[in-house]
Amino acid sequence: MRKYIFKSLLLVLILIPGVLKAQTTGTIISGMVYDEYGPMVMVNVKEVDASNRIVAFSVTDINGNFSFKLVNPKDKIMISSVGSKTQVITINSTYFKVKMINDTQLREVVVSSKRKLETGGLAIPDREISSASQLISAKEFEGLPFTNISDALQGRISGLDIVANSGNLGSGTTMRLRGVSSINGNSEPLIVVDGNVWETDENSNFDYANANEEKFAQLLNVNPEDIESISVMKDAAATAIWGSQGANGVIDIKTKRGSRGRSIVTYSLRLTGTSQPEGYKMMNGDEYTMLLKESYFNSKLSNDAANIIEFNYDPTYSEYQMYNNNTDWRKAVIQIGQQTNHFVSVSGGGEKANFRISGGYDTETGSVIGQKMDIFSTRVALDYFVSDRIKIVSNFSLTHTDNNKNYDLGNGSSLLSLAYKKMPNLSIYEEDAMGRSTGEFYHMLSNSSSELNDQRGMVNPVALAALAKNEERSNNIMPEFQIVYNLLGVEATQTQLKYEGKVVFSIFNKYNDAYYPSDLITSGWSASNANFTSSEAYKSLGITTTHTLTFVPHFKNEDHSFMAMLRGQTTSGNSSTQFTSENGLPSGTITSPAAEAIINGFTTGAGQWRSAYFTFSSHYAYKGRYMADFSVRRDGSTKFGPQQRWGNFPAVSLRWNISDEPFMQNQKWISMLSFRPGWGKVGNQPSSDYLYFSKYAQGNSYIGQTSIYPSNIRLSNLKWESKETYNVGFDFGFLDDKITSDLNFYTQLTSDLLMYDRAIPTSSGYTGLSVQNVGSMRNNGWELNLNGNGVVKSGKFSMDLNLSFANNTNEIIEMDPTVLEGMNSPFDRSNGSYLTRVQLKNAFGTIYGFHYKGVYQYSDYSEVEIPGVSGPNAPIVRNSKGEVILNENGRTKPMYFCYGTTSEYIFKGGDAMYEDINKDGNINELDIVYLGSSLPKITGGFGFKINYGRLTLNNQFNFRIGNQIINAARMNAESMYSNNNQSKAVNWRWRTEGDNTVIPRALYNYGYNWLGSDRFVENGSFVRLNYTQLSYSLDPRLLKSIGLSQVRMYVSANNLFCLTPYSGADPEVGYGSYGITYDSSQTPRAKSVTGGITIGF
Amino acid sequence: MKKIGLVCCIGAILTACSDFLSILPLNDIVLENYWTEKADVDNAVTGCYEALESSDCITRMAIWGELRSDNIVPGMTTPETESQMLKGNLLPTNAFTKWTCFYQVINRCNTVMYYAPKVQALDPNYTVSELKANIAEVTALRDLCYFYLIRTFENVPFVTEPSIDDNQVYVVKASTFDEILTTLISDLELVKEDAVNKYANVTSNTGRITRSSIYALMADLYLWKQDYGNSEKYCDLVIDSKIKAYDTEKNNTKTKLKLYGKFPLVNELVSGSYSGNAYTEIFGTGNSFESIFELDFEENQSVSNSFVPTYYGSSSTQIGYLSPAEYLIKDIVTGTNAIFKKTDCRYLESMEEMNGVYAIDKYTRLNTSFNNTIAGAPQVETTKRSTNFANWILYRLTDVMLMKAEAQVELAGEITTNAITPEQKTYYQSAFKLVSAVYNRANNITIGRTDTLVYNTYATSRANMEDLVLKERQRELLFEGKRWFDLVRMARRDGNNVRLINYAIKKYTENQSALRKKMNSQNSLYFPYNKDELKANKLLIQNPAYNTETTSSITD
Fold first, then answer.
1. Does the model's pTM come out above 0.90?
2. Are B454 and B430 in contact (CB under 8 A)?
3. What is the distance in angstroms between the Cα of B393 and the nearest Cα belonging to chain A?
4. Do A566 and B302 touch (CB under 8 A)?
5. A228-247: pLDDT as tens digits
6. With an 8 Å Cβ cutoff, are A610 and B43 in contact?
7. Are A709 and B50 inside 8 Å of each other by CB?
8. If you average pLDDT over every residue of chain A, what do you get?
9. Could you give the CA distance from residue B530 to residue A896 in angstroms, rounded to a whole number?
10. Interface test with A, best of B1, B21, B98 (most A CBs within 10 A)
11. CB contact set of A889 (below 8 Å; sequence gap of 6+)
12. Among A538, A537, A545, A539, which residue's Cα sits nearest to residue A572?
């Protein structure tokens, strides 16, 4: 193509025929450049050598004249100007007169490239991709108020199930691509930014199943405004080149780069307000005290037990004013959160270099009080073309976050969860004798009734937010340097061999400072958390070196196309941490651990990691119709011993574009129909290093002598967890790709599953092996994606649609029986616990418990109801026909809980009624049944975008269907078992004989009214309006007159509504252990409204 | 050219990779670099002691050996695990059925035994006799652990190989009580003479395994094997060494000692009018003359004995999780108590009443003294520990003396219808002298009101003599983790649990018939295997007494 342009260029080139004489080094070359309007100013005139390296340089003056000293007569002259077509002239004269041709005239000739998807290696045309992957351009969510891209991806990628962990600032998301395929290993997909993996210490004790903050930090690293496109690689054929890193799928993010042309400056501003959706309505102080008195009385049947001074409204009690309130703690800890995001970018490029510089500053306050986060991020991308053959690329990114979180009280309690539990008759502030607030935070005194110890232990959440400190600051710096060298041809018509060398540094530093003042405790100065301060510093440095060779031969017969890549990479890194904590700081104004105080803890740690891999990947296409891909990756890991150190991960995939076959040519309406089978294998490595060593640790000394002991069993047998995927995919395109769709069916077999803390007989002297390969698991599923691009179009009106669906089923194929038994704990006969059962041929995430059948209306049985005295609905034993069983004296038999055990209990009126499945008159483990699964049947999303002129309405929904959630939040709010505040629903509780209700009676620390039953297992299906946005761009012609290139304004709303049968605040709850979902009243995802403007200069 | 260069580069990377991927832990030593010199062995041997004095181990030594006996009832804020056990509900889910900490010691000992000979071959500074002494030391520690395990669980997996690699087989079936006991004895017979007789460090003489402590352990093992002759022999070796030590002892320590018969014991009443010195020396200060082997805790070290303050009490808690059974302490002052005479120092040293609740005082005090010039109830002056550094005694002289007494009573055998034979009489007299010596040392609370035992009351029958020894063991070794094992040993000898039940049931005020029934089988003398252990080790067969949950628990 370019050859023709060349020729035409030469044709229009006007060479002034001068006196032809031999030019030598030092000869002055001069000339004049002009175009159709006359002489051109500031045109670059360069002398370039054979590899297009600049050796001499000049710029034309106001009359279009130039001159320079010739370096080498064999060189050429290159004349270029923005907006004009570059011209190259051989030096056969000393004076040139050059006419430049407007670039725009040629544009239509040039633009005809295929959309290519670069999947971490080869740039393969869109229509030739044979693996399962999906690409989303950032245009689709431009201007939407996301702080990280996982929000944006939600519901857009079929098979990628993203669940926000909580609405707290800085808390992450749980992502599962094609289901859970590991028992307790890392299940999060790999995130790759511009081909780089975020390198930090994969801490040996890192709990992948539960922690997501690290991943989140990684996502925060990329400002959504900087993203060009995101591709998600799903099957092993696509991820094989990422080897063990990509075992759970790969999310590949490309950031924007500068391009040649005028410099473009854009500025955007977003203002967002967020608020908490309301969860359960909680009781007020009056309802609460009444409940608690009842609850204490019921469990002991004694008025004395219920005589707790804090509930008595006794005006003679010194603290009376502090216990006679109706405090809405929830309301006290929530607020309207505010976010302001500024983003500036400058991009452009010229002859030699392209650049893009961006900077963003976000400041956010949470929808829960006391949370504030600032993020500053900047990214510089620079491409410098030394010559046609050599390109130097440098990227630099920095993210600084300063997150003021709520103080971490441990045990997972958040401000909001405290607010839900805290007794509502208690006041926030201390009140004087007249009940007027003094403005001082009130804390329950240490001499308050001992029954309320647990409440006393719960700190005043408002005071906590105001007085305690928990600041996390992090700096993430990633400089990158890359050199690209074309060793052979540079034109598409030539055989190409490209070398690419790259070094990436990841520098990550994190500081955590916390302070807990003594004002928050009433137990005195000696408490170890009085004026407690801690400071933690973590730093890590990772260096990744990559060498890539890409070979693209050019065949005479253009039906064949082939490309191959060979890549080697090494990574090494190290990290260190320091932690210091002190208590008893002398005053509340000093919060640094540098001050003199009682040293509480002082630890340091160091880590080191290395890895190496080699990848070969190739792509072959015949006539653009038959494609074959092959790749193999060899991974070396320090986590295995020398015998198992290297893992090989091959993948093969094929594609047949049926629609391109001659027999399909007359089917114009079908623009794409393809069939893609693929197979691949990837591996997973354990999370900790040094497992194959028998390690010796230092113990305590004994009689002055140091002790050293062996601390583990070395794992010589440990192997890679391997995951084999078979994928069959179809691509569809209709009406000239107006409607595109892809459908994938897959089966994944994970074998040699890594199981952490594998129990072995303790007669070995150890409780377990840190990791062992224990069995295999299978995931089957399908995914469907549907995109309509301008499906409806009439005049100014057009509409785009997208829809995605996915389903995944999971099954354990084989597992060592002792492993299974180890995972399955016996029924502990206590309230609130559900059985975990991991069984062969069954899925993860199944919930087992009792069947809840309501409440016993009466304590005493009578065949016919005697109102207020007795009735048929009483806790007595019945046979399978429902007939009452009588004993030898003709009396009914009472219903027991766990008869003959230490937990034995006789049910009474007002107690929860559980189904006695086996009709033995005893509610015990034999009555536990299957209650559902936490794994959703279908996940996905849909969205539509309506354009009318320059007005756009963009809506995106996401949904999950058919998953069950254990609503532990409601369980705690309705158990009436402790001093915690309860939801208003318990106002309908059973209070007296004959009450017909579904809420059992209040029993303080007694009875079995909230056993793990289907009462608290709820359907977590939902459809959420993830975001809706209305945007308007001003007329560019109008803008040009005031010197602007773009003005776009928008309003959008996130999480506007959520349709769900779920009763809790938010059905979007992350996976817990063994895939079971527990909703333990974490901060729900906030609702937000954003207004913003983007201006381009 | 460049291409060739690149290929070369990649080739070089490939070969360098194996080295590149071999990294050593930054915070740990690895096996490959360990076991090269004498110091490595020394540190690893210390590691065995360190594991043995972990609070898990000490708590189990005390709980396994004491909790089910007639000495203990619940104290203050007793946790569920302990209180269920005290109620007689011993389930496979109970945390005290976990034995990991003992096998940890065993594994460390096995590791030393496996690698120490290799070090000897490498390090010329590590002599053969030092090697032998180390082997003897860890053999004794390992056997001590197994001894605890078989007394508690009867049959346990017997592992003598170190656990190093995941290639090894860790699922091991249980060996029987007798097999293990025989092996333990023969192991010790092989190494007993190799052990160190006296360490340079004085504390080590009681804090680490010496020849005497091996003898004491062997005497105990033989006693359980019902080989009374050998038991007596090894008791004598210990006692004789103490007598010899007394003779060579310097005057300043000698003043604290006194000969009771020929037996040198720490004197309760050193000077003037204050008794209680023996307690201060043995339990308060620790590492006393009488001590044979105890686990040492030093104030300046980070490791502490958390068992004593948690379970027995401290200056802040006063009463721990456990309390003495009421019958032990009640009515002493009126003189009607069956166990303690009011002249006995030990009741004042071991327990006290605090507002109607009883506290265990053994180990919890730094010192005691009773002013015996006051008529009536003695005035007790004590200091309770505020720190957790009480040593834990495994063997001491009076324990060995009473073991010998027990062996001799058994050697004498049953008195037939005819009169006692001269041989029997010798045994009885010797046994009585031993018991008397221990008894007399303690019975001196008040001047002029000493109490002594009368030979003729006991020498009438074997049962009486046995009872005499057993009672004295209870009094002397109260709360030292010995009582339940004494009762089990007796039941094994009897072949039935009748006498054991009669003792053990004393502390219960309710549910006695059910408990009697439950304790009836020999199997019920031992603990169940932990549920998790059974899950991990399919070759273990649960003690039949605990096979189903319903048979092992009692409604309360």
1. no
2. no
3. 15
4. no
5. 888 888 877 777 777 777 77
6. no
7. yes
8. 83
9. 27
10. B21
11. none
12. A545
